[in-house]
Amino acid sequence: MLTSSILLILLILGIYAYLLSSPKLPANTDEIIQDVLDADTVEQITGDTGFADSDGVSIWYNHIPAVGDKRGAIILVMGHSTNIFGWPDYLIDVLLGAGYDVIRYDNRGIGMSDWVKRWSVESAYSLEDMAKDCIAILDHLKLDKVHLVGASMGGMIAQRLAISYGQRFHTLTSIMSSGFMADPKLTLVPAPFKRGMSKILGRYGWRPTEKNSIKIGISLVRLLRNNKSHRVDAKDIAQKMKYDMRERKGFNRRVLKQHNKAIELSGSRYDELGSIAIPTLVIHGKRDPLVKIEHAHKYAPMIPHVKTLYLDKMGHDLPRELNEDISRAILSLISGS
Asked: Within 10 Å of residue 198's Cβ, how many Cβ atoms?
């Protein structure tokens, strides 16, 4: 009996130590979060908002006008289970300041767009369906041709758009993405990232409070950045998550399975990447803990006349410290088209 009790205690201590080894939060995070929760909610959206109909699916968008003389428009396609706030303000500000309208939107299943509550494995949507959501927004806004930027799963959707609807886009930028996520010769989801996620969810996911949800968000950013020298702005994340939880619809847990299935259904684009005829830039981080850079090394050369930017200090995120490099590369591609 004593031995069993000791083993149970050791097990509990082992689990506790495992959870404590999750990515550490920035200093004073508890106080920062509490201050944000106690203060008035800060508005996080500027410009026009609306909904576009995509074959019966309602897609929410945000259209932000350029600063100064207008040179065109850029549409941003975000990744797996991530809403518009995955695009950092500092990147958007640079694009706006360069004279480009910025259009960002919530993918189906997330944010203010249709959550597809009757979703099933048999009736699951694909990345091809999600690409049509982007076209629906362009049609709704009466925009014939824009520049296209996608990140992570959004990069996969952007590749599909460039393949199937290339006439609607001037350029393509695919960031931290893949041409075939399930390529058996490449890493799917690295084990260290899985362990990191399990620690974060085990530590903060057991009690679904606003504070714990924000802690999950901050911890996930740190895990994805995979670079301790890149600052995590806990206050900004807390303000955006609070706004999303109180002023929008919050997070849809069902979207995790939906977006996984969309990627699975769409399979490989390897045989079609060669048909992309618009100027293309592939950006990827050498420290990416989720989509290893080996994916970029494989799919980028399949795109004709592609330009690449591989950043030594970049993980699976768009940190402020690399914003100048990333935004400069995007604007260089766009201005040269």
From this structure: 14
